Request: fold
Amino acid sequence: MDAPDNHSAWSALEAHYATVRDTHLRELFAKDAERGERLNAEGAGVFLDYSKNRVTGETIKLLLNLAEASNLRGRIEAMFTGEKINVSENRAVLHVALRAPADASILVDGKNVVPEVHATLDKMTAFGDRVRSGEWKGHTGKRIRNVVNVGIGGSDLGPVMAYEALRSYSRRDMTFRFVSNIDGTDFAEAVIDLDAAETLFVISSKTFTTLETMTNAHTARAWLLGKLKSDETAVAKHFVAVSTNAAEVSKFGIDTANMFGFWDWVGGRYSMDSAIGLSTMLAIGPVHFTQMLLGFHEMDDHFRTTPFADNLPVLMGLISLWYNDFFGAQTVAVLPYEQYLKRFPAYLQQLTMESNGKHVQLNGKAVEHETGQIYWGEPGTNGQHSFYQLIHQGTRLIPCDFIAFIKTRNPLGAHHDILIANVFAQGEALAFGKTPDQVKAEGTPDWLVPHRVFEGNRPSNTLLVDELTPAALGKLVALYEHSVFVQGVIWNIDSFDQWGVELGKVLAVNIIPELDATQGEMGAPLAHDSSTNALIRRYRTQKEN
Ligand code: G6Q
Reply:
């Protein structure tokens, strides 16, 4: 497959970069009194202020040209219409179908997938209602009060993030836990205070073969049967599965009537709004879940239909790429000023880095530009008392995405105004800093002045949303999903595969039997490199002491 020729658009940006690289945001704002009013966009109820970025009107124009030259329009349509744009796995990429209205038609291999999506949602709703109303009983006749999602990666990060984000909409008389790590501590701590008779395990695994999830699922089954002193018959009342693999689900002992399906065109990291969201639905209820889907869909529509110059995911994707590929910035800090979004940066790490951490183009040739920024972050204001120092005065350029909400779910005195004052102040301080003259004018002794100077010119986006509702969460997630897509298109990479996670998995499976201390040097000789061999020997010897 030939890459679209966007070379001259890249070259134009390179030439432009040379002329603006040293321009300070102070200068850009001083030259244009309206800048803060103009450089913003609003879509699906999400407001983006991008004026505190190191861009001019010309920069945006050239970035938009790059998007056009990369055939972004065509690629958006290809995704939305079910073309197999995940080339290396030969799959369509249709997370947008998961939130399409019931009367939409999206064809994969000639078949409309929307009816199946809605049939699954109906099944989830019916099950959710039964569990939440207490009609669904455990093996001993008690109602379910605890839900434990067992999954990892895309089958965990979305559900945990959404549960935390929408906790204020969740059933407070139920407990929700998430087990992902193969480290037994994760499972042990998750169930330590739970009554097995009231506990439902949702085993979430697209493949139903993932080592961590299947190990945890078997441990969960043994724990439950042990606690209930029951035979296998208890499994049916305490285990349901979310998977695409019916054969493995029944092999595990879960009745496929209690299995919620999805499809190969839903990537793990794009699956929180599929049946993988079952734990979310159990927590917040079907009505809120539907609202979340409507939010996703609103952003999908915005992305698909809005001219690029006003298109939030396009603008955010392009601006982020501008720093990555021209300024050499390596990371993006995502800083939600909303405690409920405390797992949002972790969620975005998978979405962005697993999607765009790629070194070859769709045609197999090496990429021509740096791809895949490192995403990281923590909620504000906590980070301000920690790593923000480096963002303000360090030597690296770290573009920031601030996320804030006009209304809080927990109005407590002046807390929310203080929170919002802080997020606005950070954007201002990063952009404009403090000059030596300003520092001196405050009476600072000369020797201390350099320490107290803030260079400024550190870029940020500010996303403002009315309130963290289920719909707002859907919009934010879709915004980042599509922004990742925009960048992937321009880099001409496959944002939807993840071959990079395979090698370590295979090697771990080889090492597992080698850790058996009884084998010692009696077993087959270790054949790794000398470092790995020595680590295995040390572990084998010392675990017996
Ligand atoms: C996501 C990845 C990966 C996946 C997990 C779990 O895009 O594919 O994170 O979600 O490896 O896979 P299963 O759902 O198959 O257990």
